[in-house]
Design a protein that fits this description.
The complex is a heterodimer of chains A (612) and B (296). In chain A, 26% of the residues lie in helices and 31% in strands. Chain A has 612 residues and is an alpha+beta fold. Chain A has an eight-stranded mixed sheet, with no helix packed on it. A five-stranded mixed sheet of chain A has the order 20-21-22-24-23, with helices on one face. Chain A has a four-stranded antiparallel sheet with strand order 10-11-19-16, with no helix packed on it. Helices cover 76% and strands 0% of the residues of chain B. Chain B has eleven helices and no strands. The chains are: A alpha+beta (612), B mainly alpha (296).
Chain lengths: 612, 296
């Protein structure tokens, strides 16, 4: 009979010390109080006609300081009803490379405020040709703190999926499909805007209940946790509920397969088309890692449920889109297992990152897209560096690896067209390309330059301070700058962030002079641009020794470097991502034998195949 | 059916058109002997093979030198697998990368022009002829080999059009399948057919060019075709070997001088492997001379 050994109990003091030293699990909770607004949406999907017939009951509280004489709704599906809408004009019938293929709309059948019909007096064309906003004048003002009930019925015609919402064959994305109130500002004004091609979110936090009615056998993913599921004849009716979110969506298809996982207290559900099992597994892994990484940096994900949707091939228009507690990721469209590209990791990391930057920290995406897409793009790159290493965080092929932020830098700085500063509002960008390069590329390059110049952990703590302070809030760029000033000192916003983000300033370095002589080498380095980014000059001497000369934020370095200097190069470690021309940064370097060997072998292989 | 045609064998399906002569029977023992002899032939013609290697090296040196100078001017001796590539691509126009690409195009064009006479002279040397005779034969047979290249090229284009049909039909039939992997795997499997067609045409071209040193155009094409079956194994492993000695070695993490030695050695080994294949090709098509049935 084996003898059992009971481990000796740890002394109480040691156990207590260990318990105190152990990292606390990353857990967060929702605010105890109920959110000020409540939506109950009932939606019946007709997958043949691609329509959603539904009703919405809103319990709305005037949280502002002023009486309200008007309600303002967003009817965003009307963006797809004609060529004259703001969305169609701005996007030129195409979004992210996917062409518009048909129309969509929302028809409001009834609208009652406190049981009084208000539809007849409503104005739905606040911008000529665009019916994505609805102004509803009130006969009796709603006083601050007062609650009203709003009831509406509607029929939504989903468009073919090219811009986030719609259908692709029997795959349906129900987003922006019901009448939703615009964001009420503290002064009683409505932050209302038409549906733009880029940028869509800005809403108040609320409790959402979604009742989705689909054909029997269909699978549904939606915002929040599923609280009931019942059959009614040939139909399946599911209820989802979530408090403290600012939007609710659902996806439905008859063929979804499901993979489940957990990260701490969060239940993760991946819905994917048949044949994408290995891709779904990878999305699940990245989601787990992301929940951990972003949770530690920005505060824990506070909801119990997260749904990840892998859309089918052909539904690219819905791919890469974030909603509270649910996001749509991307392929890989070539449904092969484990391709060595990072594209699918990146989309999952990015859309997951939005759970913080816009989901929890609910900024105005149209007015300040850099606070949404820009910050998310940086934390995406940060996570990919964590997962794959800096040098492989963009491309991780056996024979080629690239730094993901170097790719973002090339994108951000690689155009001859003028680039708007990242702090520009969405309607003011010249084009979608300008918007993308600036908001995603330039913002993330600025932040990564800060991370590489002043320390990554410090930047993570700074963004964590900002995200934690403004959770379930609607901050502005000034709030972000305040977090940076707290962390780095009062100069950071004034000297780095504002010039870089609001004026588009760069930090370009140029080697103006490199003259070797008996006394040493005369070197002149000039910084063009206002940003005082610290960098280093790498000096290589003839004996092979290497010295790093700090150029700590100075606009000009002019001096003599002792010894037999063979070569110099500015920022050889490639920490600064705001120099748009690195080709004028070095001198005296010997031609590379390795480069010659490779170039020669490549040419021999090529010509050997073409030749005899 | 002519009197000289052998009676059709019962129970076997042949896709051979009636106008195409029946291939002579091949002796597996002889094929094995050719493979063994080809090693010896390739070794004995190593000087000629080295000369061919030098021709390719000389052609390659030009674009490689332009590329290296451009890259060095641009970014210094940075390793290739860094974001330096992105700067180079982004600023390609101002760096003069257009000149480097142009050098590649010209060198490639020159290699293609020279490929026919150089290959003929090389095969001739592998067959044991003396150098002067080889050079004369290469010049004489150049037009013949060009016509053969043209015929094989046209046949390849037609065969490729047919070989791509299965992939096209599978794609159109399965593109609406919810399981995208089924579609992808079927189309990928079907693309093996055009790949085999390209490899077959390439081997046929080498064999027909080898035959044209002694035969006319039609006869060379026939002999090359007949020899395909017996020589396809060698062609396959030589092709795979040459590929493995090419691009996959480019990113070997070695010190510069060691890298230069390793890559140049591998380039010469690749050239030698090709000489081994051409030596065997020559033996296959030359041996058929004695075994062609008189009535064909």
């Amino acid at each position: 009979m084996p003898r059992s050994h009971r481990p000796a109990p740890l002394p109480f003091a040691v156990a207590l010390a260990l318990a105190l030293l152990a990292p606390s699990p990353v857990v967060a909770e929702l605010p105890e109080e109920a959110p000020p607004h409540h939506y109950e949406v009932v939606a019946t999907l007709d997958p043949e006609a691609h329509t959603i017939v539904g009703s919405v009951r809103i319990r709305f509280t005037n949280t502002s300081n002023a009486p309200l004489t008007e309600l303002r709704f967003h009817l965003y599906m009307n963006a797809f009803e004609s060529d004259e809408t703001v969305f169609m004009k701005e996007s030129r019938h195409s979004l992210r490379g996917v062409e518009a293929q048909g129309e969509g709309s929302i028809e409001l059948e009834t609208l009652r405020v406190q049981d009084v019909d208000r539809l007849g007096r409503a104005d739905d064309e606040l911008v000529d040709g665009d019916r994505t906003q609805l102004s509803v004048p009130l006969t009796r003002p709603i006083e601050p703190g007062a609650e009203v009930a709003i009831d509406a019925t509607f029929t939504t015609h989903l468009p073919p999926l090219f811009a986030r919402a719609g259908y692709f064959r029997d795959f349906h994305v129900g987003a922006q499909f019901f009448p939703k109130l615009a964001k009420l500002e503290p002064d009683g004004s409505w932050a209302s805007f038409p549906y733009h091609g880029n940028g869509e979110f800005y809403s108040d936090f609320a409790r959402y209940e979604l009742v989705i009615d689909v054909p029997e056998g269909w699978v549904v993913g939606a915002t929040g946790a599923q609280t009931s599921d019942r059959s009614e004849g040939s139909r399946r009716v599911l209820r989802f509920e979530q408090a403290w979110v600012h939007d609710a969506v659902f996806v439905a298809a008859p063929w979804f397969e499901e993979r489940l996982g957990r990260q701490g207290d969060v239940a993760i559900r991946v819905l994917y088309p048949p044949g994408y099992g290995s891709a779904a597994e990878r999305h699940l892994e990245v989601t787990r890692e992301g929940l951990r990484h972003f949770g530690e940096m920005l505060g824990a994900y506070p909801y119990a449920q997260l749904t990840v949707v892998v859309p089918p091939r052909g539904a690219e228009g819905g791919a890469g889109m974030e909603y509270p507690t649910l996001f749509l990721t991307a392929g890989p469209w070539l449904a092969m297992p484990r391709l060595p590209f990072l594209a699918q990791d990146e989309v999952t990391a990015h859309e997951l990152g939005h759970q913080w930057f816009q989901g929890l920290v609910a900024t105005n995406e149209v007015a300040h897209p850099m606070l949404d897409e820009g910050l998310t793009e940086w934390i995406t790159g940060d996570l990919l560096q964590e997962l794959h290493g800096r040098e492989r965080s963009g491309v991780n092929l056996p024979f080629l690896h690239l730094d993901g932020f170097a790719i973002r830098r090339a994108w951000a700085l690689g155009s001859d067209e003028p680039t708007s500063p990242p702090a520009t509002a969405v309607p003011e960008f010249h084009s979608s390309n300008d918007y993308g390069r600036s908001v995603y590329g330039r913002t993330s390059s600025v932040l990564e330059t800060i991370a590489r110049s002043w320390g990554r952990e410090r930047l993570r703590r700074t963004l964590g301070d900002y995200a934690r302070r403004h959770r379930f809030d609607h901050p502005t760029p000034a709030d972000l700058y305040a977090s940076f000033d707290r962390s780095y000192g009062p100069w950071m916003a004034e000297r780095v962030l504002r010039p870089a983000l609001e004026e588009g300033e760069l930090a370009q370095f140029r080697l103006m002079r490199f003259e070797r002589g008996d006394e040493g080498a005369r070197v002149t380095v000039q910084r063009v641009g206002e940003l005082p980014i610290p960098t280093q000059l790498r000096v290589v001497r003839s004996d092979g020794s290497v010295e790093w000369v700090p150029l700590s934020g100075r606009a000009r370095f002019d001096g003599t470097i002792d010894g037999d200097v063979r070569s110099v190069r500015i920022d050889a470690a490639r920490n600064g991502l705001l120099d748009d021309n690195r080709l004028d940064d070095g001198a005296g370097e010997r031609p590379s034998t390795g480069l010659l060997a490779r170039a020669l072998h490549f040419a021999q292989s090529l010509l050997g195949a073409l030749g005899p | 059916m002519s009197a000289s045609d052998p009676p059709p064998s019962s129970g076997t399906l042949s896709l051979r058109p009636s106008f195409w002569p029946r291939p002579p029977a091949t002796d597996p023992g002889k094929a094995r002997a050719y493979r063994r002899s080809a090693w010896r032939d390739a070794w004995e013609a190593r000087v000629a093979t080295f000369a061919v290697h030098l021709v390719i090296l000389a052609l390659a040196a030009w674009p490689a030198a332009v590329w290296r100078a451009t890259m060095t001017d641009a970014v210094g001796p940075a390793p290739l697998a860094q974001d330096v590539l992105l700067d180079v691509i982004r600023m390609g126009e101002s760096l003069g990368l257009g000149g480097a690409l142009l050098a590649y195009v010209f060198a490639g064009g020159l290699a293609m022009m020279l490929s026919v006479p150089v290959q003929l002279a090389w095969i001739c040397a592998l067959a044991g002829r003396d150098r002067r005779q080889c050079l004369r034969l290469a010049i004489q047979r150049w037009p013949r080999a060009l016509v053969i290249t043209l015929v094989v090229g046209i046949a390849l284009a037609l065969a490729l059009a047919l070989a791509c049909l299965p992939a096209y039909f599978l794609h159109t039939s399965y593109q609406h399948e919810p399981n995208a992997r089924t579609h992808d795997l079927l189309v990928l499997a079907a693309l093996v057919v055009p790949l085999l067609v390209v490899l077959t045409a390439s081997a046929w071209l080498d064999l027909a060019r080898a035959a044209c040193i002694r035969q006319g155009i039609g006869e060379s094409l026939k002999r090359g075709w007949w020899a395909l079956k017996a020589s396809s194994g060698t062609y396959t492993w030589v092709t795979v070997g040459r590929f493995l000695l090419g691009a996959p070695l480019l990113m070997l993490p070695l010190p510069p001088v060691a890298l230069l030695i390793v890559l140049q050695t591998s380039a010469f080994v690749a050239t030698f492997l090709r000489s081994r294949w051409l030596a065997e090709a020559w033996r296959h098509v030359a041996a058929k001379v004695a075994t062609i049935p008189s009535g064909s």
